[in-house]
Amino acid sequence: MSTEAEATLPTSDHTGHGTGTSYLDASSGLRNWLITLDHKRIGIMYLISVLLAFAAGGIFALLVRIELLSPGRTIMGAATYNQVFTLHGAIMVFLFIIPSVPAALGNFFLPIMLGAKDVAFPRLNLLSFYIYVVGAVMALASMVIGSVDTGWTFYTPYSSNSVVGSQNAVIWMTGAVFTLGFSSILTGVNFIATVHKMRAPGQTWRRLPLFIWAAYATSVIQVLATPVLAITLALLLMERAFGLGIFDPRIGGDPVLFQHFFWFYSHPAVYIMILPGMGVVSEIIATFSKREIFGYMFVAMSSVGLALVGFLVWGHHMFVSGQSEYATMVFSALTFLVAIPSGVKIFNWLGTLYGGAISLESPMLYGLAFIVLFSIGGLTGLFHATLSTGIFLHDTYFVVAHFHYVMVGGTVFAFFGGLHYWWPKMTGKMYEEGLAKWGFALFFIGFNMTFLTQFVLGSRGMPRRYYDYLPQFTGLHQFSSTGAFIIGIGILLIFVNLTRSLISGKKAPRNPWRSAGYEWMTPTPPPLENFKEVPVITRGPYDYHLATEAELSEN
Amino acid sequence: MNPQGTFQLPPALSEYAPRVDELYYFIFWISVVAFVAICVALVLFVWKFRERKGGPTKGAQSGDHHALELFWTFTPLILLTVLFHWGFKDYVAAAVAPDDAIQIRVRARQWAWEYEYPNGMITPGELTIPMGRPVKLVMSSDDVLHSYFVPEFRIKKDVVPGMYSSLWFQAIMQPRRYDAQVYCAEYCGARGDTGGHSAMLSTIHVVTGSEYEEFLREGPSRPTDLQTDTQWGELLVTQNNCLSCHHTDAATTLPAPSFAGIFGRHQSLEGGGEVTVDENYIRESMLTPQAKIVRTYTAIQMPPFHFSDHQVDAIIAYLKTIH
Q1: Into which CATH architecture does domain A34-422+433-499 fall?
Q2: Cβ partners under 8 Å of residue B42, min gap 6
Q3: A98, A161, A332, A524: least surrounded by Cβ within 10 Å?
């Protein structure tokens, strides 16, 4: 091992002054946080924001599940229920999942893993955070002003001509999503530039951590697909505000056109949501297996492959929409291709476990849970890609269960895995491992109770977005709701544990998991400019056989 | 064929349904095998290669495994091709209706279905069709997107304003008449406290050929399990989602006059005049709702409901009972 890499190791006193001062101590006061250009502080501000959004979206989810405890009215009327599930979807998708891993964890760790001082455009980074805040405030405003009851998909002509709710609320909510898109685009541009131009000496493309490959592929999708969402929502706003006939057939528009536009963004957006999660899982599995990722290049390229294929399959949301039979055939065939890179990832993660030296700390439990839950999410995708079964199951609870296995079982488990994995590095504190495992166990059990049940509800014919249901579905709905409450308790426990660590947690060592990853080479918490000197990379991030004992020790 | 249904699937009541079920279970068992294999490998590897005290602290080196990588990249394509082809073949069969299919016009609106038969008869809320004969639905929407979903037939199609879409099916032969449940599967909103989208249900009555001929001549008749016209009237009011706008409770404010104590009530009309609610006014209000509108209830335009004379009688009988 070279002396340069050792130069990145901390001195025993890493709260010292000068370049070694931790980013948390570099300056104090709220104002210094709010105008910071430090990617780590921006990452923390994103983290707080997305966790607040997650809490809000989660409360709406629980309200939905409480209402569905019995047929007919349980706690709210039909119109209110429609607003509640719309807010659950819109908040979770646009304010939580899309920015969760890339903007919060990505902002913090992407430059550190590249050996850079910051992202390429720090001011742009702060701007994208404030655009996110403006978008979030607009979404809040839509709730105060009235009621959006269109579902998070805003399908026309219902959304352009809804007889229920307030016109202005739909305008505010679509305006919010429009605004949030710009935040997403700017973060994407920033990450692409950073990955291309800011890598430390010796950091070749083949030595990029897989989290970076995933974040890079995600950024490309964000930059290419999000403008289409902006165009779509702008057209929708013009239709509502000025009566231009674009999507509403009564004034000469075409409602199916909206679906093409919307899914041309929103399907690639699924990969914006899942790819960064896969990146996190690759990091976790390598660290807790103490081993190089099996088939590194295949895992990296499968991220790029998913990003590309993701652009070609939007029509599978529209098998019953009235699009042409030929389009339906082509989209079904292309959709099956998604299975290939997804499978490659699963197989290579299993290959990494084989021959590892595996320890089961809480981040690894999330990583393994991801493999299990994402497998269910992926395999149930086969039912949807296949035309005859896909049409039968379309818009039923089977779809709801399928995408929750991908989005929650996949992305959210990866996000919490990443949060537990990097928490010591970010905050300098250790959480309590026992409580973390309890939180994980409740989340995992509750999640499967909630959503395995929904597969059966769906295959038995229960349509989604239903306020009321026929009596034969009661038992399954109640079981599903019970699972949702268990998820709620699990998440609460996780929040309590992490928050408590900030107050009374043990001081975190430099490298608590004895990982060979680059981000663990710098002191905990990292200094303002990430490293005391520009690091020189002489090995891959998973080269445990090349890493020195000093690098792999906790302190 | 499984007309009873299974734990996962509802009864299979169309000729097409068993084809879907066969493919469904094929994918299901393939998924089970793949999932179990992944889980077994995961648990086995985690156990076998767990970090032991005094054991190695680092994993083994990986090296290159190009053959293995290429194997698991390309082998799944064989299965995926089979699934695509099988699903597509069935899809084509479901997309093309036979020439001799009975054609039914279906009109959707928030939040009710209406059917028009080849002889021009219209029934709101319920469809009656003969078993063993192909039936083609030609569907349109008056307002927003809806979707016609019959789980027992395994079919679904969006109903889109501004265009026609179609579906066809052939209900299986059974010794006796039976029903299939229809749902709206594309979210279409709600108003107030009652169902909206989730109450946009409908029933398909599958009857024998001779019963169907009789139905076309005589129009809809009271379901055999109901004793009185009052009960039938209540059923019709529920099926046609009248309570999305009206209500049976005087206190609730909704966009249409309450049904509570409606019979015999004096109402002021929009544009002047007064009316006492009697049989003729109720009949007129269902068949031509815009003729005499109760004052201030102009926000919503009630569409006409094409009930038969007997159905109108039943609804009037029911409304008389609400106080």
Answers
A1: Up-down Bundle (1.20)
A2: A350, A353, A368, A371, A372
A3: A161
Are A107 and A46 contacting, i.e. CB atoms less than 8 angstroms apart? Answer: yes
CB atoms within 10 A of CB B178: 17
pLDDT at residue B176 greater than cutoff 60: yes
Over residues B246-280, the pLDDT tens digits come to 877 766 667 788 888 888 888 888 888 888 888 88
Q: Do B59 and A356 touch (CB under 8 A)?
A: yes
Angle at A247 between CA A246 and CA A252, to 5 degrees: 65
Q: Residue A40: what residue type?
A: K
What digits encode the pLDDT tens for the residues B39-87? 999 999 999 999 888 777 887 777 778 888 888 888 899 999 999 999 9
**Residue of chain A whose alpha carbon sits nearest to that of B47:** A358
Residue where one domain finishes, among candidates B168, B185, B218: B218
Domain that holds residue B172: 102-218
Verify that B289 and B239 share a domain, yes or no. yes
Domain boundary (B171, B187, B218) is at B218
A355 and B CB contact within 8 Å:
yes
Does residue B176 sit within a domain?
A: yes
Same domain? For B236 and B214 the reply is: no
Asked if residue B206 and residue B310 are part of one domain, the reply reads no
- B108 plus B214 within the same structural domain: yes
Measure the CA–CA gap between A112 and A114, rounded to whole angstroms: 5
Q: How many structural domains comprise chain B? A: 2
| CA gap B146, B167 in Å, rounded | 14
The CA radius of gyration of chain B, in Å to the nearest whole number, is: 28
Using the CB atoms, write b or e for A128-165: b if 16+ within 10 Å: bbebbebbbebbebbbebbbbbbbbbbbbbbbbbbebb
SS3 at position B205: strand
* Residue B26, domain member (yes or no): no
Same domain, yes or no: B274 and B255: yes
Are B107 and B127 a contacting pair, CB within 8 Å? Answer: no
Would residue B93 count as lying in a domain? no
Contact state of B161 with A386 under an 8 Å Cβ cutoff: no
- Which of B72, B88, B94 lies at the smallest CB-CB distance from A344? B72
Enter the ipTM: 0.90
Q: Give residue B292's identity as a one-letter amino acid code.
A: K
Residue A493 neighbours by CB under 8 Å, 6+ apart = A435, A438, A439, A442
**Integer CA distances (angstroms), B56 to A151, A178, B95, B141, B316, in order:** 53, 53, 61, 68, 85
CB B125 within 8 A of CB B315: no
Distance CA A329, CA A489 (A): 44
CB B128 within 8 A of CB B110: no
Backbone angles phi, psi at B132, to 5 degrees: 75, 5
Q: Does residue B47 form part of some domain?
A: no
Cβ of B95 within 8 Å of Cβ of A325? The answer is: yes
**pLDDT beyond 60 at B148:** yes
How far apart are the CA of A33 and the nearest CA of chain B, in angstroms? 40
**Residue in B with minimal Cα distance to A352:** B62
Contact A332 B27 (CB under 8 A): no
